[in-house]
Write a sequence for this structure.
């Protein structure tokens, strides 16, 4: 029995296999419509989520399985003080696999250590979100046809963005990757990413505060929200906030085959006018998230067509 807590739990070969299955699901959906018949997914979400929870549930339904859902901590025995370990042991008696989101870092790992069924980390605090990373890797693969020899720009809040940290970590295992980190000084990527991931793996990278000058070199632009609450003073936020809003005018500086990604939810960092641009991939990401979670559920449940 295996769980998925961190993207590093999967080898690059296993990621490639998941992407291959995901592509086959897209091409032949009917082939997969009954593979999880009789199986039950428990979605345990102790903090709000729209895309991730519905994506897991849609994935299991499309595999022919069933879903049991806890959509908030207040509606579970956690509100009575039940531990994560006891919750995992209890739910193991009802379900075949668990997807858990929790505000406390490490909670899904504790669940996996105590459950007798596979556990998928659907986000733990600011720590990990491995299925978003799988979503991103599937999207990159489908848009570019490869996961190597790419220049990837990350823009916005690089300090607190768990999706950014996880994707950089995943991409660092592929060849020919260059990373461009675009952010205000206040929201630069943490040292543990530059030192322990980029430098340790010999990944070329550069840091800049200027989105426009970075755009022409990028194969992929991964946008994130610059959050007002991350700044110590309002003046700095007001000075910087518009610098990281992607507009059609700024896109004039980008390549015609640029792929624009965003983990969502979006606030105002990508102008709505860009949604119809063929380079916009963020709603494709949403669809790809359902598909790659279907492939992951199959892998962890050890079912096949």
């Amino acid at each position: 029995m295996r769980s998925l807590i961190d993207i590093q739990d999967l080898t690059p070969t296993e990621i490639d296999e998941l992407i291959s299955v995901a592509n086959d699901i897209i091409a032949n959906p009917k082939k997969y419509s009954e593979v999880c018949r009789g199986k039950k997914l428990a979605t345990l979400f102790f903090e709000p989520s729209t895309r991730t929870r519905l994506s897991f549930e849609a994935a299991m339904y499309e595999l022919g399985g069933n879903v049991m859902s806890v959509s908030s901590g207040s509606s579970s025995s956690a509100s009575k003080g039940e531990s994560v370990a006891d919750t995992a042991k209890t739910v193991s008696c009802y379900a075949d696999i668990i997807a858990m989101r929790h505000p406390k870092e490490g909670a899904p790992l504790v669940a996996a250590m105590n459950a007798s069924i596979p556990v998928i980390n659907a986000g733990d605090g600011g720590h990990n979100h491995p299925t978003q990373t799988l979503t991103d890797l599937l999207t990159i693969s489908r848009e570019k046809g490869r996961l190597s020899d790419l220049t990837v720009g990350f823009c916005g809040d690089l300090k607190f963005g768990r999706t950014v940290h996880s994707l950089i970590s995943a991409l660092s295992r592929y060849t020919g990757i260059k990373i461009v980190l675009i952010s205000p000084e206040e929201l630069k990527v943490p040292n543990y990413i530059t030192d322990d991931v980029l430098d340790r793996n010999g990944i070329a990278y550069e840091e800049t505060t200027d989105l426009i000058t970075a755009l022409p070199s990028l194969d992929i632009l991964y946008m994130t929200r610059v959050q007002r609450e991350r700044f110590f003073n309002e003046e700095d936020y007001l000075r910087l906030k518009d610098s990281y809003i992607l507009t059609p005018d700024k896109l004039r500086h980008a390549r015609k085959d640029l792929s624009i990604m965003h983990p969502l939810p979006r606030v105002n960092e990508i102008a709505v006018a860009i949604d119809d641009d063929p380079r916009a991939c963020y709603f494709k990401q949403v669809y790809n998230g359902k598909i790659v979670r279907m492939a992951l559920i199959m892998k962890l449940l050890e079912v096949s067509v």
